Amino acid sequence: MLLRVNYLLAALLVVVVALNIVFGRDFSQPHYELFADMKHSVAYDAFSKNSNFASGQTMQSPVPGTIARGEMPLHYQPTPDDARRAGQELTNPIVSGAKGDPLAKSEARGAQVYARFCVACHGGGGAGDGPVALRGFPPPPSLLTGKSLQMKDGQLFHILTYGQGSMAPMAAQLRRPERWDVINYVRSMQSTAPPRAGESKTSADAPAKPDESTKLESES
Ligand code: HEC
Closest ligand 1 atom to the C-alpha of 186? Predict the structure, then answer.
């Protein structure tokens, strides 16, 4: 009896070992997939081979001569001359007085952009006294009293797109509509700023508009 059990167990062992060899799994390969339809999409992956196209690739280059929506090419160089030319040629797409007051909405969006991307250097009130500037970064000129008052919107757009001096380009951070929004916000700051009376503005501006910096904190 006992012997028969041993034979049985030995046979079982052989079967298990054999099964293991037959169905043994290569750990360098993916496991068996029972319902693989979720894992492998029917659509071609962006970088997968694709026999439907002559190039054999799934991703295709844009058709020559076409422009992707919202990607109108800008033909400017990062030079002061081209910044001035942009001032002549580029017009602010947001017009005031239209239905639904798009300018007010744009300024509100621009205030958010300003609080996130400009306050660090230009300061909450635009006086050029942001925390980065106070700690040694070359302080930017005041947006309220400086040259930007005289610059056309298109020139500010050029500065935001290509940078100016020690200010880096912001094109990678801000899409074009956001750049116009923040320009509109800067304009609204300039128009509501107290009249230019001497040079004492810098210190007077900082406490006057503390709301931008607090907005930044409460929203992140
Ligand atoms: C890293 C710091 C920094 C950040 C962030 C920054 N700026 Fe500047 N900005 C500067 C400096 C410095 C200058 C002066 C550059 C120069 O002419 O040498 C400047 C110049 C400008 C000017 C031109 C002013 C003039 O009188 O010539 C404008 C307009 C401007 N910045 C707007 C913005 C806006 C809007 C943002 C946010 C989207 C922004 N900047 C973000 C540092 C910064």
Answer: 35
